[in-house]
Amino acid sequence: MLHYLQLIRIILSYLFLFSVCSLSTCTVEEKARTCTLCDPRWDATARYLAGKATDLPTDSIAEYNHHRDRMRTYWHQIQTGNRSRMQTWARENMPYERMSPTTLYLFSGGDIINPTVLFPDSETYIFAAIEDPGVAPDSASLTPVQRRQGLDNIYRAVYTIGVDNYLRTNTMRAHLNRGPYRGLLPVLLMFLSGLDYEIDYARRIEINPEGDIITAINPRGYQTPEDVQSSLNSGRLPPDGLEIVFHKPGSQQLRRIIYIRMWIADDMLAPSRPEGRFLSKQVPFNIMLKSASYFLHRPAAERLCRFLVKNGRVVVQDDSGIPLRYFSETWQMRLYGDYRGATPLADQPFHPTQPDMLARYRDQSPDALPFDYGYGALNGRSNLQLGYQSQ
Fold first, then answer.
1. How many CA atoms lie within 13 A of 331 on its CB side?
2. Which of 48, 155, 359, 383 has most Cβ atoms within 10 angstroms of its Cβ?
3. Residue-level pLDDT at 15
4. Which position has the higher pLDDT, 295 or 8?
5. 61-77: per-residue pLDDT in tens?
6. Is 110 buried (19+), middle (13-18) or exposed (0-12) by CB count in 10 A?
7. Which domains does the chain have, with CATH numbers?
8. Which helix (H) or strand (E) holds 178?
9. Which letter, b or e, does each residue of 73-82 get, where b requires 16 or more Cβ atoms within 10 Å of its Cβ?
């Protein structure tokens, strides 16, 4: 029976990978290689980072036991705290029947915790941010010192999301720009394993001029935000990122995260740009926005906001997302939580308050939000707007 289930898994994985190739217009040679992408090393690495590994080198058992203990506490804190309250709220409020199988999460960083609760049935999660896609080497290839440093860096980088559902960019950047585990790949692998997903494979990708994802030939390392912006604007380098394919144990549904490192701005939608062509192929989609730096409130983001509203099916955001004025009468908008104006941010001088949203919160007296979400987590007053296309 076990052999039969394994055979079914292999066949389904192979078929899924062919569908990925059709999306990416793979060559015949690339299709022939897709079966080699399924590698148990990725799941082993994810389990190791999440504190779930059992097959360990003898010289690392003691130090790993420390990591396992703190990660056990960490996962308990996430599952019984904010995530549990969000799951209950989502079951009672989210319009699952209106959702697209694709969810777009701009300014995502490494947060897979929230979208898997709010959009649990998505087949594809498209993430976009400026963080380094990163590397996650096999622990067996590291020295004991490297393993200890790597595990400490990972834990320190993501600790805060277990406390208040908020990943701090500067903290992550400080801990994930050094040591053996760098960028978002180890973070996403760790989160997926901690949420009880199994990893089929991961790969570094690029977007080709036609807007399709392909395997990256020369994966790039860390770039400053300014480097990301200039390289994409000049066309000197293609947008790059990650693809991670994963599944729930016992499930035949394969899912994936596509992370694209990009400078999020109006001009990224230009049909002459690879990322513009890529995004135009993903519609329609759900939209998730959280702690989005109030970028979409700038006049220069008008085109992007209109693109999102036109092609979105369900949106979940805090007040830093799409301004309320962009949603037409075809959108049904529900307000939750406590909104008294934008949250001031030390590194973001632009944080505009929305008078129309203030008025609606005052007039409607929305239900309380039972979990932390977005910048409201910083002052204990989270707000959330849930919307869906009514026609």
1. 23
2. 48
3. 43
4. 295
5. 788 999 999 999 999 99
6. buried
7. 2-37+84-142+197-389 (3.40.50)
8. none
9. ebbeebeebb
